Amino acid sequence: MHEVRGVVVKAKNEPATLETILVPDPGPGEALVDVLTCGVCQTDLHYKVGAVGEDFPYLLGHEASGIVSAVGEGVTEVAVGDAVILNWRAVCGQCRACKKGQPWYCFNTHNAVQKMTLADGTELSPALGIGAFAEKTLVAAGQCTKIEAELAPHQYAAVGLLGCGVMAGIGAVLNTAAVQRGESVAVIGCGGVGTAAVAGAALAGATTIIAVDLDDEKLAQARSFGATHTVNSRTQDPVEAVKALTGGFGADVVIDAVGIAPTFKQAFEARDLAGRMVLVGVPDPGTTWEIPLDQVFGRGGSIKSAWYGDTLPSRDFPMLVDQYRAGRLDLDGFVTERIGIDQVEPAFEKMTAGKVLRSVVEIAPAPGTEATR
C-alpha cells in the first residue's frame, strides 16, 4: 500500500482539496503509475458539481502522463519504467463492438478492480477510472499507452493532454468526421476541445477552417492553431457567415464543440447538402433540440456524436505524438500554465472564466529533469 497525496472532492460542489490517499499494489491486469503531469479538464469540474454522478468522494484528474512503477500478474502491454499516456478507453476485445472490428466503441472498457481510498478507508471513485491528480494512481494496464518516442522533459505535459480533451477534438475531425484534404470545416466553440478540432482540421489538410465563438481572444487563438477564418457569433449570424465563406453552400463538416441546443441547430444549418455534422461538446442532462424531419431528410449527409473522438489510444496516441514531434501539431500551445498539485481549485476558476486552454498540474519531475518543483 502506498500513501500519497491526491486531489479529492468529497461532496457535490465542495472545494477540491489535497488529501492523503492510499493506493494498493497492482493486482492481475493492473498497473501502478507514478503521475508526471495531469491537465485540468472540464470533465473534472463536471465530477465536482455532481453532473456525472453521486459516487462521492471522487479522486479527480485524468489527462495524464506518467511512468509505470509496478505491474500485476498477466500484464504484457507495459512494463516497469515505461513512460505512458493514460486513457479511459481500455478496450476489452470481447464485446460486440470489439468483435465487429470497432474497438473505439468498446462497450466494456476496463478499469482497475482494486479501490484507492482515503486514509480512513473510505473508497474513492477515480475520475474516468483514472484519478490522476495524485502522486500515484492505479489503473487497468490497458489504460496505459506507451510513449515510444523520446521526449524532452517539458513535452510530457503536452502529450498527456491527449488523454482527453485534445484527443476528443482532434478525433472528432480525423475519426468521426473523417475530414479529407481540401474540405471545408467549421468549428463552433473554441474552448480546449474546439481549438483541438481546429488543429485537427489543419492536420487533416482542410483548406477552409472557420472558427466560430463569442470571444475575440479565443478566435485569435484559433487562428494560431490553423483557422483560416473567424466568426464572432455575438455580432454575426454564424450560419450565414459560414455559408458566405463557403461559396454560399455551407461547410463540408461542422463540429459543435459546445453542446447546447442553439449551437446544435447552427451546426446542422451551417453544413452543405450531404455535409457531416459532429457533436463533440457534452450536453447537460435533459438538453433537447427541434429540427423538422423533412430538413433532416432533405439536407442529407450525417449527424454524429463523437465519443472521445472515436479514439483508439493504441492507434491514435503514437501517431499524434509523432505529428507533434514533427512540428505539425502544436500540443505545447494548449498548455497555458503549469501549476502544482495544490492549485487545482484555482485552476477550475480560471477554466470557468475562459482564461486558459489548459492548466497542467506538474506532479513529479519528468525523465531527464534534474531540478524538482
UniProtKB/TrEMBL annotation:
Keyword line: Metal-binding, Oxidoreductase, Zinc
InterPro entries to which the protein is assigned, alphabetical: ADH-like_C, ADH-like_N, ADH_Zn_CS, ER, GroES-like_sf, MycoS_dep_FDH, NAD(P)-bd_dom_sf
PROSITE patterns in the record: ADH_ZINC
Documented EC number(s): 1.1.1.306
Gene3D superfamilies in the record: Medium-chain alcohol dehydrogenases, catalytic domain, NAD(P)-binding Rossmann-like Domain
Pfam families in the cross-refs: ADH_N (PF08240), ADH_zinc_N (PF00107)
Domain Enoyl reductase (ER): 16-361
Top-rank lineage group of the source organism: Bacteria
GO MF terms held by the record: mycothiol-dependent formaldehyde dehydrogenase activity; zinc ion binding
Cofactor(s) needed: Zn(2+)
Similarity remark: Belongs to the zinc-containing alcohol dehydrogenase family.
NCBIfam families: mycoS_dep_FDH
Protein name: S-(Hydroxymethyl)mycothiol dehydrogenase
The organism of origin for this protein: Kocuria sediminis
